[in-house]
Design goal:
- It is built from 3 helices and 6 strands; from the N terminus they run H-H-E-E-H-E-E-E-E.
- It is α+β, with helices and mostly antiparallel strands.
- It has a 6-stranded mixed β-sheet with strand order 2-1-6-5-4-3, covered by helices on one side.
- The protein has a single domain, classed as Nuclear Transport Factor 2, Chain: A.
- The longest helix has 21 residues.
Length: about 120
């Protein structure tokens, strides 16, 4: 297994849990995938910490779901993996929205958490 494969597996582990919580509209479970001091930038003003993440996802419409594709990974340190993803958010009442998502995931004890989440719209 290569480092890139290892890094993708780490990102998939975190993103699959994030996606499951987003798709189930469980904002507290989404926030649980983030570090206590995570920097979060969705499509609204940024926040720091799990509470801001939970509030952001609580404001999302019921029925919104996410699908992602990992495009790039970089191992920055033993306990830090950078990921660049394409994410499509689907809605029940409007067309899908595709965004770019940059993540920095950090290992704390034996689990990985999102320490930085930054979304940008495709041009």
């Amino acid at each position: 297994m290569t480092s890139t494969t290892d890094d993708e597996a780490i990102l998939r582990g975190v993103l699959d849990q994030w996606k499951a919580a987003v798709n189930a509209h469980e904002p507290e479970q989404v926030a649980a995938r983030f570090t206590e001091d995570a920097i979060f930038q969705g499509l609204h003003p940024y926040s720091v910490g799990r509470q801001g993440v939970a509030e952001y996802y609580d404001s999302q419409p019921l029925g919104m779901t996410a699908r992602y594709q990992i495009l790039e990974t970089r191992r920055l340190a033993d306990d830090l993996v950078l990921g660049y993803q394409s994410v499509e958010f689907d809605f029940t009442d409007r067309p899908p929205l595709t965004v770019n998502l940059s993540l920095l995931v950090k290992r704390l004890a034996s689990s990985w958490y999102i320490a930085l989440y930054q979304v940008s719209l495709l041009a």
